[in-house]
Here is the input.
Amino acid sequence: MSIVHPDGYIVDIIGPFEGTLNDANMTKEILETNNCLTTWLNGTGQMILDRAFRDITEVLQQLGYEIHMPAFLKKGEKQHSTADINLSRLCTKTRWAVEAFHGRLKKWRMLGDTIHNSMIPKLKVCSL
Here is the structure.
């Protein structure tokens, strides 16, 4: 899991996590075990997330963060409104910085491939 500013500045890389966890579960584990995220943002700020984080949005909003993510089509709708489309484009454009960082990170052979389970305890560093 990585925390990246919209301008491409890398704040932190947290992990690795087991392959059975989705993005929402990883975020929940980070919030429970490491409060650096809340310290950095002082309980305020905006988070631009992709759809994989939809299960944790309520928790993040209760912590005081403003959440932005691409819009979902509601039942019976065939297309998004103009405001929803523009918000989705803004999220996609901003998330490009994160995806570009992940692309650079995966050029390292160790991080671009599957990590064997026996290596995870040796790689997992917790800074509480």
